[in-house]
Amino acid sequence: MYYRVGVDVGGTNTDAAILDIKALDTPSRGVLATCKTSTTTHVTLGIQRAVKSVLQESKVDRSKVINVAIGTTHFVNAVVENDARRLSRVAVIRLCGPYTKKIPPFSDFPYALRNIIEGPHFYLDGGLEIDGREIAPLNPAQIKQTASEIVKAGIRYVAVVGIFSALDHAGIHEERCKTLLQEFQPELSVVCSHSIGGPGLLPRENATILNASILAFARKTIKGFRLAMSKLDLSCPLYLTQNDGTLTDAAVAAELPIKTFASGPTNSLMGAAFLQGLDHGDKRMADNQYVVVDIGGTTTDICALLPSGFPRQAPNFVEVGGVRTAFSMPEVFSIGLGGGSRVRQSKDGKRVTVGPDSVALRLTTDAMVFGGKVMTASDIVVANGAAIVGQPEKVKDIPEELIKAAKADIKRQVEKAIDNMKVSSAPVSVLLVGGGSIILTEGLYGVAECLRPPHHDSANAVGAAIAKVAGEIDVIEVLAGRDEDAAIEAAKTAAINAAISNGADESTIQIAELKKIPLQYVTNKATRFVIKAVGNLHVKGGVARHAQQNGFVNGVDIEEDVEAAVEEVEKAEVAKVEHGSMAKPALGVDLTQYRPKVENGIWHISPEDVQLIASGCGVLGTGGGGSSYLMALYTLNLLRQGAEIRVMRPEDLKDSDICVFGAGYGAPSVSDERVSSGEDVFTAIEAVNTIMGITDFQAIVTDEIGGGNGLVTMPSSARYRRPIVDCDLMGRAYPTLEHGTPYVYGFPVLPVATADCKGNSSVVVTAESNRMVESLIRNTCIVLGNSTGTAGRPLNGNVIKDYTVPNTISQAWYLGRAVHLARQTKLDFIKAISTITPVTALYTGKIVDVTRDVSRGYTIGRVVIAPLSADEAEDSESSSKVVTAEKRLLVIPFQNEYLSAAYVDDEKAEGKEDVICTVPDLISILGQDGEALGSPELRYGLKVRVIGMPAHPLWTSTPEGLKVGGPEFFGLNTEFKSIGEYQRPRSVIEEFDTSKEP
After folding, report:
1. Are 264 and 290 a contacting pair, CB within 8 Å?
2. Are domains 85-213 and 838-872+881-970 of this chain identical in fold?
3. Would you state the pLDDT for residue 285?
4. Closest-CA residue to 475 (of 259, 197, 256, 211)
5. Between residues 45 and 740, which one has the greater pLDDT?
6. DSSP label at residue 541
7. 97-106, 226-235, 569-578, 919-928: least confidently modelled range
């Protein structure tokens, strides 16, 4: 007989369970004993008590325990709490050549955390292009000098981040750099970003920095865990549970602690699935969807269980301690509902609410059933006779109507939370776990069955005990000219080999996850593969394979400095705490009182303005244009350094004034990874000016206000000390250069330059058509790495005044302010938007289907949205006031940008369409927070609002405008359908110019 022990360390309780691995398929699921004890200040002491309890109760031979697996929130708490004693300063090395300098490391860290861990950063040769070419070869002399500087600065922890590290299968950059650093300075601990996350340089770098910062603390903590095991006479190997529900041995966890940050909710989910007999991925998992509801004393956590038996992972980035990061994390939806939730009744007795506040740890003293005076959810359940806790006679006088109303509120909250986690329209089965699950006593609407597994109150510890071993790869492969099936099989093999290396039993390994994600705008078929292979922990002779030598973690004797290993210290006092974050300057600003700085017809851009404009550019991006986040960070960093950015009215241009252009051009999936230095746009502007013989210019004009390009002119304003004109060439986002309004009406785009950050530039001087211009610069862009700067021929002020869309920077500012102000004041954001620009609320609903593919470099697909039910519409005050009366579904096709909106009768959208809006009018899809959702961000289950805004008459009132900007250009089989009459946007300069005030 052999046994496995699982431990889950929470903020309140520490749970332990011991399982007989030969009895896992019996009705008891092999659970021999469980224990719940309070989490202690000395975390290792609490673990020791819990494990000792289950060992004594089960009376097993301790030599037959094959492993202990621990899940803990200890490491993430150090980051969330900005704990200076547990966080180390980190130096950052980017292998990037001339790229990425516009956004230094730590740019979007909250100031408080940044002040604790920020060390020096270095830009070294290295990194890869999207096609696998080297940006620059590694330079050992650079690395040697850098290692010396890091040590001189008193820093021992280093994050190494190489551009497109996911392409570096041979380890020629990050891994080679790590080896050289440690050869030159052996005392350095180095974390490579490819071991932390996938594409997206800044979020991956942030996660790598956090991991490096907690290395010392993680190593010390894990030494303490091993010490606790040795005191219990356990000689078996120690594992920690990871965010995805799999195991990693203690030595690896000590080097990659960030992968254990969210193991708690995952342990509960995995334990619930196992206890319910769903751990084999049988047919029930494919036909139904399972949601785990873990109700504790204070909160309820909801996770979706995928057919693979693992939790659904959070999309895109995840914020940890206010830092935007990219690493695998389960998607968890939490609400303030638990056994200790307070129950309140309105003065008129008509409304009863449960939570979100809780008596938490004081449940056994404050709740009525324990002689206290606070009515809690547990009191309601006991009064209803559904549970026996404490002294039931203490709650016998609670009125029946109040009990009924409280139960209804509990039921309503859980139903809404479950609906938020649905992954499809298939029937839902709920697995109910957690000590607080007694508060849910009735069936749930929309739920086929509600199951409470055996040992449900210790599901988290059971989940840790039965966790499997995984091997995961996250790589980019260039598939042009290659057999795609062979590439996939090779990637699968790599994942399987990784699982075996991590300790999985080869005979049990299966592919649990395979994602194939073509990159946007890229023509070489670059595709991201995310593959996970999972198997049971390999056991041979009663010992888990790949065990650490007994008494050692990371090669360090656990008996050495034992006291230091287990000592728990108070949080350090930081001399100066700086609140906020450079990335969120408007946070905490009262926008009802905020006034932009406008003097003598010139708007001086502030950090708050940048954040508002960035949000507005997202709305005007109509699904495309790329993210404005990185460009906003670049601009904010310039302002922090003292740069001046100005905006002027188009009316104030002289007819003879020369206005230049400059924009980003290429694939967002590349520019998010190979972040520009900013020099590419400047090189393109200067190349055109040189050819044109222009030595000076008076203003800068934005090519495209929608998405990231809406902010590109701001660094140019700072660089050249020239104002930006409050206008642009599109009034939205469009996919090609020929969509500039002056070019639609015959004004020349040529010469047009394309440039990278290495000093390379190419200029198109003549071409037979604007479409040929687009082809030529796109081909150049591919050669230069699929992300470049571009600049067209400068135009005179008279053209800008007559053939551009006016006041669009102002429009973006007003849109952003409306969204942020609505969030601050809890108002409806669409009503807020309608006060400053014509907008039609087209639909309120939930996404029920998304299809997409990458063709010709564009993301092409459609989204189907269904109306909300009355209950769903009550989720927020704002949505309840704007419930879609239309009962049909809405379908929106897209080619990066959203092209049309039409009513349909069913999800397949194969019948007749009732078109209500098309390009060139603007269609935007907004999330529940009012922020715009790009077409790559759409997914099933999101509750959204769809709005339409009229386009400028330059697009809608002439055959030329409609031919290029309307349905015909995009191959839509429909006529242009307008949403309403265009109105010129308000001007920030005209409204806030202090020189006009009396």
Report:
1. no
2. no
3. 60
4. 197
5. 740
6. T
7. 569-578
Q: Interior CA angle at 626 toward 957 and 918, to 5°?
A: 30
Between strands 189-192 and 914-918, the pairing is: unpaired
Question: Which tens digit of pLDDT belongs to each residue from 510-560?
Answer: 888 888 877 766 667 888 888 889 888 887 655 555 544 344 333 334 344
Under CATH, which architecture does the 597-811 domain have? Answer: 3-Layer(aba) Sandwich (3.40)
DSSP notation for 195-264: GT--S-HHHHHHHHHHHHHTHHHHHHHHHHHHHHHHHTT--S-EEEE-TTSEEEEHHHHHH-GGGGTTHH
The Cα-based distances of 67 to 18, 347, 668 in angstroms read 10, 56, 45
Task: Kindly report, residue by residue over 706-731, the tens digit of the pLDDT.
Answer: 999 999 999 999 999 999 999 999 99
Measured CA to CA, the distance from residue 545 to residue 543 in angstroms comes to 6
Query: What order of strands is seen across the sheet that includes strand 332-335?
Result: 332-335, 300-305, 289-295, 428-433, 447-451
Task: Determine the average pLDDT of the residues in 912-939.
Answer: 91
Rounded CA-CA distance 725/218 in Å is 52
> What fold is seen in the domain 85-213?
Rossmann fold (3.40.50)
- What are the extents of the domains in the chain? 85-213, 468-537, 597-811, 838-872+881-970
Q: In the prediction, which pLDDT does 576 show?
A: 46
Instruction: Give the separation between CA 142 and CA 125, rounded to whole angstroms.
Output: 8
For 906, what's the count of Cα atoms within 13 Å in the CB-facing half-sphere?
Answer: 3
In angstroms, rounded to a whole number, what is the distance separating the alpha carbons of residues 290 and 306?
Answer: 7
Q: Which pLDDT band holds residue 575 (cuts at 50, 70, 90)?
A: very low
Q: Which CATH number describes the domain made up of 838-872+881-970? A: 2.40.390
* Pairwise CA distance, residues 430 & 437, whole Å: 12
Residues 323-351 have pLDDT tens digits of 888 776 778 888 888 888 999 998 888 89
Q: Is the pLDDT of residue 38 over 60?
A: yes
Would you say 405 and 352 are in contact if contact means Cβ atoms under 8 Å apart? yes
Angle at 758 between CA 754 and CA 763, to 5 degrees: 20
Q: Specify the DSSP class assigned to residue 549.
A: P
Q: Would you call 983 exposed, middle or buried from its count of C-beta atoms within 10 A (0-12, 13-18, 19+)?
A: exposed
Counting Cα atoms < 13 Å in the Cβ hemisphere of 196 gives 30
Q: Which of 99, 93, 161, 108 is nearest to 676 (CA)?
A: 99
Query: Quick check: bond before 920 cis, omega within 30?
Result: yes
User: Per-residue pLDDT averaged across 583-591, rounded?
Assistant: 84
* Tens digit of each residue's pLDDT (9 = 90 or more) over 44-90: 888 999 999 999 999 999 999 999 999 987 788 888 888 899 999 99
Q: Within the chain, what is the greatest distance between any pair of CA atoms?
A: 92
